[in-house]
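Fold this sequence, please.
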Amino acid sequence: MGRVYLDLTYPLEEGMITYNAPWHPIFKINQIGRLGLEGRETREISFGSHTGTHIDAPRHFVDNGDGVDSLLLENLIGPVTILDYSFLNEGEAITEPMLKQHSNELKKCKRLIIRFGWAKYWGGNKFFENYPYLSEEAARYLLSHEIKLIGCDTPQLDSANNIGSPIHKILLNEKIILVEYLANLDNIHILNGWKLIALPLKITGADGSPSRVCLYKDGTE
């Protein structure tokens, strides 16, 4: 039985959706080297640090917090617990009692992916509107399980209607790595047995970075 891989990364391309704030840049790519003229293909690429599938480092919300270049590989690579909350309604929160039902699973490893089933809205404005999220009590409950990384298929774990970003602050203040905009989680049929690789660009002092993220496991899905 071979090894199975699942890419959780959205492609970076012109016209893709980005965080819906007026100050957030769009993705741009421009060819500056051509085989017929310069003898090689080279491209100039411009993007924000939270474009597409990406990692939030503590510095995103923590003054002088760790940047993506300081994140430990041992936290970015290894076994992962995947919890399915795709049954939640729009704008509904994961509560502490909901997480307590999975206390044994949360003890198994220090990486967690939450599947909300929100990737179906990728590509349009709906992706950024009224998605399910993590309550403050649930976020603090995860702190007690020494989780080091949390991924999701929504724009973020904060509510779309909460401009104060309390969940980001609770988790990033404890140096928990956040991986947002995950793709293809709906293609997972068996949730257990997966390992995660989530690697940001090693940009000195950056608060975040687009990242290549994938799951793998031995055997068939």
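The domain at 3-11+48-218 is CATH 3.50.30.50 (Glucose Oxidase; domain 1). The chain has one domain: 3-11+48-218.
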